[in-house]
Design goal:
single chain, 103 residues, 3-stranded parallel sheet, 3 strands
């Protein structure tokens, strides 16, 4: 599994004992969705359920996005209460996420 998947999965697993959590994998490769049966007790939804996100009945919905700009980001940002962009602490890594932050 790609290392960029780990923060979304770890957050979901961390909160699943206190909250009703869903993890939505909208990355085209669908790595998290393909291992959903291995993530016991965690609801993992695929890209096709993204349009239903407002109607989902969960306390916390974590959306795993592609590691690059996507045309879905503006819509997701509008629906979000909080946005977490994991990155390394290096100068060039921070520069690489500037366009995402600008959205």
């Amino acid at each position: 599994m790609a290392s960029e998947k780990v923060p979304a999965m770890n957050l979901a697993v961390c909160f699943q004992d206190q909250l009703n959590v869903a993890l939505v994998d909208i990355d085209l490769q669908g790595s998290l969705y393909h291992i959903k049966d291995e993530l016991l007790g965690l609801t993992v939804l695929g890209n096709e359920q993204l349009h239903e996100i407002k109607e989902l009945n969960y306390d916390l919905i974590i959306v795993d996005t592609p590691p690059y700009l996507s045309n879905k980001l503006p819509e997701l940002f509008g629906l979000s209460d909080f946005i977490l962009i994991p990155t390394k602490a290096g100068f060039f890594d921070v520069m690489a996420i500037r366009s995402t932050i600008a959205r």
